[in-house]
Specification:
Length: about 325
């Protein structure tokens, strides 16, 4: 199935390789960033393709206004800023780049796990403030500890492989990964009920869907060892921020490293208190923020646009989020 693509709007900043590749195959590209909603609603009708990152909210209203829209591409993994149901009803294909930022997200996760164990961020800040708090920031070895990886897909698997080199024992939960497949990557597949009591560190690598919303909160943390540490470089909302804050205050959770939040930038007073907690390392959604990842996802979404439009047989479509549209 070939979809006609002649005019593409890029509404969030992407690496220039995306623009260059599309133009080199005869696709007209317009870049307009940070469009107010009313301007986006007026503009979108002029294009048959749209490329976004995380800033543009492709709502049902935007999709309805895109009378010529045929393809929406997300230069990244998550598509929670795109109303996929509305797009599917209108026969619009939604694409993402599922593998483009996996290594970058994995490496940040590993960095945060190590930083939690050794209080790196807090100790560095104390030095900047002129203190020498050597005893205060004594930490723990990762060797021999158990890392629970919730979601053993591209990112989770890479995290598990790397943290084994620290001598960590890897357990995982993923309903679509077999025990044999997990074992081939050095991990033991367990149920969630089996994971909570054994985990020293928990890192989440799932999409934000009804089954994973508030996956980590009072109910799950209360089943964990006292002093468990949690990491989220996946999606805000998987961890209940208010309940995590309470667990930190009580000592049930000894530390958290958070790169994503239920609201970005965070404004909720509870979330802001969580970020300021002395045992929390917070970063502003940096999982895919590497030069390599940005170049990779930009090129990959352009390649998929060329493949789905039939303008090049060199590339393939690898990230269809709503494949039912192509079956029609």
């Amino acid at each position: 199935m070939s979809i006609k693509l002649e005019n593409v709007l890029i509404s969030d900043p992407v690496d220039g390789s995306c623009i260059d590749l599309l133009k080199s195959h005869g696709i007209a590209v317009t870049t307009k960033y940070k469009l107010p909603k009313d301007e986006l609603l007026q503009e979108i009708k002029n294009y048959d393709g749209l490329i976004v990152r995380s800033e543009t909210k492709v709502t049902e209203e935007v999709i309805a206004a895109g009378t010529n829209l045929r393809v929406i591409g997300r230069a990244g993994t998550g598509v929670d800023n795109i109303n996929v149901d509305a797009a599917t009803k209108k026969g619009i294909v939604v694409l993402n780049t599922p593998g483009g930022n996996s290594i970058s997200a994995c490496e940040l996760t590993c960095t945060l796990i190590s930083s939690l164990a050794r209080n790196v961020a807090q100790a560095a800040q104390s030095m900047k403030e002129g203190r020498w708090d050597r005893k205060l920031y004594s930490g723990f070895e990762l060797y021999g500890k158990t890392l629970a990886v919730l979601g053993f897909g591209r990112v989770g698997r890479e995290v598990g492989l790397r943290m084994q080199s620290f001598g960590m024992k890897i357990v995982c939960f993923d309903p679509i990964v077999s025990a044999e497949d997990a074992a081939s990557a050095g991990a033991t597949k367990l149920s969630l009920d089996e994971i909570w009591p054994v985990a020293d560190y928990i890192t989440v690598h799932t999409p934000l869907i009804p089954q994973t919303k508030n996956l980590i909160g009072t109910a799950s943390l209360s089943k964990c060892k006292k002093g468990v540490r949690v990491i989220n470089v996946a999606r805000g909302g998987i961890i209940n921020e208010a309940e995590l804050l309470e667990a930190l205050k009580s000592g049930q959770c000894a530390g958290a490293a958070l790169d994503v939040f239920s609201e970005e930038p965070p404004k909720n007073p509870v979330t802001l208190e969580l970020i300021r907690h002395p045992n929390v390392i917070a970063t502003p959604h940096l999982g895919a923020s590497t030069a390599e990842a940005q170049q990779r996802v930009a090129a990959e979404i352009a390649e998929q646009f060329l493949a789905i439009s039939g303008k090049s047989d060199k590339y393939s479509v690898t990230g269809v989020v709503n494949p039912s549209v192509l079956a029609k």
